[in-house]
């Protein structure tokens, strides 16, 4: 992985229709997105030159922008092509890909009708999100001090930058306390997700996962549900309360960055890094690396 800061790297970033040298891909300080969080983004992984579920990610980016009230002038096919062009221009075959769309600097204030939409795509080498040791031993999570908002208070169906402020705050609090990450509850006190990944639990041979009614139904989440069902494993999407965690045997996170990462601990509750979690992690790896 490149140790340079993210503003000072060699390579290219796709920016509003053309590749630019990495260091020249800049925006003005009065960009609306910087002041009012009017930005949406995606996190994608490229395996052996192919971005996994690229079109699903591109469509979600378009849909997220519409939820925030702005329309991207690029089609899903054009965004797909731009992502692939960016990976190729940077000479990468295994990479993390970050498209981001935002409102520009044509207008300042809460209103943004006169701003223009912009789109940029960057990519870089990125190994295991939580590190190899975490994959082997399982992550330690605490309970986040912040909760996922109700859908009537925030655009929870959008992958909007502003929704991640409480994720950063919760993850910092977890790391300051010696944990890897945090489990977030929702506004009702029900189990929701980690700061950047969905969560699954195993009990009596069945997988249980929170219903995504106030957080993203992740692309990796849906993929893993499909892999589990292919193996004949029952998957139950339902309300999960924190006090139920004591009765679960295994637990893991799913996400484009996290992939399938086992959990060893959430607050006072411990979990086995067991065979089913390992199997689903192997199944996911085989799928994205086209070994099936």
TL;DR of this structure?
The chain is α+β, with helices and mostly antiparallel strands. It is built from seven helices and 16 strands. Helices cover 27% and strands 27% of the residues.
Task: Give an overview of the whole structure.
- There is one protein chain.
- By secondary structure, the protein is of the alpha+beta class.
- It folds into two domains: 12-124, 2-Layer Sandwich (D-amino Acid Aminotransferase, Chain A, domain 1), CATH 3.30.470.10; 132-288, D-amino Acid Aminotransferase, subunit A, domain 2 (D-amino Acid Aminotransferase, Chain A, domain 2, Alpha-Beta Barrel).
- It is built from seven helices and 16 strands.
- The chain has helices spanning 32-36, 54-68, 76-89, 132-137, 165-176, 219-230, 275-288; strands spanning 12-15, 18-21, 39-41, 44-47, 50-51, 95-103, 117-124, 139-143, 181-185, 191-194, 198-203, 206-210, 235-238, 250-255, 259-266, 269-270.
- Strands 8, 9, 10, 11, 12, 13, 14, 15 and 16 form a nine-stranded mixed beta sheet that branches. Strands 1, 2, 3, 4, 5, 6 and 7 form a seven-stranded antiparallel beta sheet that branches.
- Helix 2 (54-68) crosses helix 3 (76-89).
- The two termini are 28 Å apart.
């Amino acid at each position: 992985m490149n140790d340079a800061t993210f503003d000072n790297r060699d390579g290219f970033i796709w920016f509003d229709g053309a590749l630019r040298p990495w260091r020249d891909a800049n925006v003005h300080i009065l960009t609306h997105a910087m002041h009012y969080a009017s930005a949406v983004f995606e996190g994608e992984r490229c395996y052996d030159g192919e971005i996994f579920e690229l079109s699903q990610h591109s469509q979600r980016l378009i849909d997220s922008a519409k939820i925030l009230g702005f329309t991207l002038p690029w089609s899903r096919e054009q965004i797909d092509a731009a992502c692939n062009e960016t990976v190729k221009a940077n000479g990468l075959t295994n990479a993390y890909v970050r498209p981001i769309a935002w409102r520009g600097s044509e207008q300042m204030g809460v209103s943004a009708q006169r701003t223009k939409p912009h789109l940029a795509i960057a990519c870089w080498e990125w190994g295991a999100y939580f590190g190899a040791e975490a994959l082997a031993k399982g992550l330690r999570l605490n309970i986040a001090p912040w909760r996922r908002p109700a859908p009537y208070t925030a655009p929870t169906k959008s992958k909007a930058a502003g929704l991640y402020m409480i994720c950063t705050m919760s993850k910092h609090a977890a790391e300051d306390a010696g944990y890897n990450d945090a489990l977030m509850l929702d506004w009702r006190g029900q189990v929701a997700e980690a700061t950047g990944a969905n969560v699954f639990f195993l009990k009596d041979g069945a997988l249980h996962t929170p219903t995504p009614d106030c957080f993203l139904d992740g692309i990796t989440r849906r993929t893993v549900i499909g892999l589990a069902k292919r193996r004949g494993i029952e998957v139950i999407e339902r309300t999960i309360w924190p006090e139920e965690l004591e009765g679960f045997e295994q637990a893991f996170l799913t996400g484009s960055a996290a992939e399938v990462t086992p959990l060893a601990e959430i607050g006072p509750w411990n979990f086995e890094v067991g065979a089913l979690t390992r199997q689903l992690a192997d199944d996911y790896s085989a799928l994205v690396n086209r070994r099936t």
